[in-house]
Write a structure and sequence with these properties.
- The chain has 367 residues and is of the alpha/beta class.
- It has two domains: 5-157 and 298-340, Rossmann fold (3-Layer(aba) Sandwich), CATH 3.40.50.450; 160-295, Rossmann fold, CATH 3.40.50.
- The protein is 34% helix and 19% strand.
- It is built from ten helices and 15 strands.
- Strands 3-2-1-6-7-14-15 form a seven-stranded mixed sheet, sandwiched between helices.
- Strand 1 (5-10), helix 1 and strand 2 (35-39) form a beta-alpha-beta unit.
- Helix 5 (159-180) packs across helix 6 (195-203).
- It starts with a strand and ends in a 7-residue tail after the last helix.
- Bound molecules: 6-O-phosphono-beta-D-fructofuranose (F6P).
- 6-O-phosphono-beta-D-fructofuranose is lined by residues 13, 80, 122, 145-147, 189-191, 242, 264-265, 294.
């Protein structure tokens, strides 16, 4: 079956570079004589078409995607609610049941004469894409997440922007921490992987970096802070990944998981800050970078990766591929089966040279 009409969607948390992927997909499709559409707000365009003037399906034209590659966010909208594989159905008795609505997406594509889906997302969205592929829909995945926790790609787009911004924040925090001789604890996003915390922490000169991959002992971190005080440094910067936890401890959770949604992590920064202040006697402050690291314009690296991913996704469809993810592998993009990506998290390998570098230059990992 030759391709004539395709749709794109963006799912899960937004990441800088989404609009660049949308632009590249759209232009690459139009340049092949195809029509290109965008599903609104994840799959809400399919499930709630009445909410949208365009019936949940936005026609993407050259005009619509002009001048968007450098803009953060996603012009199509996104959501991390309403996972089609475990969609929350509210019953009259007040309880909620999870149902699989993926078949409705395949029917929607048939009804709208759409030949393929390019799904831009993280682990959750790519798991859904793989399930749709198994139902016979032509799907190509594009790896998006600031967390960089997707397997089988050198990096995801959005990660470089998050790390660059977080590094700049650390640069700024050095000067105020040093002026006041304080301890500043900086909590970073990243879910259960420590990529953002590790890369920005090393680049930004953090004195201790606490990662989900290395459960920590606060006494070791307090010792590092005391040593710095003894050497006359007087201030310390501690980076804590939101998914980090003390040895034998639990993750800090802001909100429990609801139907089809993940739990919301957060709060470990303040816990660490208070505990270290108590152990060292130092005045401490906590900074939660939160959503600041995923807002704003993509770096040139992310912009280029996103444009390359978008164009490569369209080439994959032209070449008859399906159920694959576009992946960055120097020097070219490659394609990997979605099966090898869905449901697999890429944690920071303990033996990676970035951690070794940190240890060589005296960073404390709390182990
Ligand atoms: O996956 C990206 C991410 O920003 C994580 O780092 C963070 O835990 C999560 O999304 C927050 O999501 P939200 O606040 O949009 O629910």
């Amino acid at each position: 079956m030759s391709i004539r009409r395709i749709a794109i969607n963006t799912g899960g948390g937004d990441a800088p570079g989404l609009n660049a992927v949308i632009r590249a997909c759209t232009l690459a499709a139009i340049n092949r004589g195809w029509e290109c559409y965008g599903l609104r707000d994840g799959f809400n365009g399919v499930f709630f078409p009445e909410r949208y003037e365009d019936g949940g399906l936005m026609r993407l034209t050259r005009d619509r995607v002009r001048g968007i590659a450098h803009l953060g966010g996603t012009m199509l909208g996104t959501t991390n609610k309403g996972n089609p594989l475990s969609f929350p159905l509210h019953l009259p008795d007040g309880t909620t049941k999870e149902i699989d609505r993926s078949g409705e997406i395949v029917e929607f594509f048939a009804k709208k004469h759409l030949d393929a889906l390019i799904s831009i997302g993280g682990d959750g969205s790519l798991t859904i894409a793989h399930a749709l592929g198994k139902l016979g829909l032509k799907v190509i995945g594009v790896p998006k997440t600031i967390d960089n926790d997707l397997d089988k790609t050198f990096t995801t787009f959005g990660f470089d922007t998050a790390v660059s911004f977080a590094t700049e924040c650390l640069d700024r925090l050095h000067t105020t921490a040093e002026s006041h001789q304080r301890l500043i604890v900086v909590e970073m996003m990243g879910r259960y992987a420590g990529w953002i915390a590790l890369h920005s922490g090393i680049a930004g000169g953090a004195h201790a970096i606490l990662l989900p991959e290395i459960p920590f002992d606060l006494d070791k971190v307090a010792e590092k802070i005391r040593q710095r005080d003894e050497y006359g440094r007087g201030y310390s910067l501690v980076v804590v990944a939101e998914g980090a936890r003390v040895i034998d401890g639990q993750h800090a959770v802001l909100a429990q998981a609801e139907a089809g949604q993940a739990e919301r992590l957060g709060g470990i920064g303040e816990l660490v800050s208070r505990a270290l202040s108590a152990k060292t006697g130092k005045e401490a402050r906590t900074v939660v970078l939160g959503h600041l690291v995923r807002g704003g314009s993509p770096t040139s690296f992310d912009r280029l990766a996103a444009l390359r991913f978008g164009a490569a996704a369209v080439r994959a469809l032209e070449e008859g591929m399906t159920d694959v993810m576009v992946s960055l592998a120097h020097p070219n993009v490659q394609y990997v089966p979605l099966e090898q990506v869905a449901g697999r998290m890429k944690a920071v390998p303990l033996e990676c040279d970035t951690i070794a570098t940190g240890r060589d230059i005296g960073v404390c990992f709390g182990d």
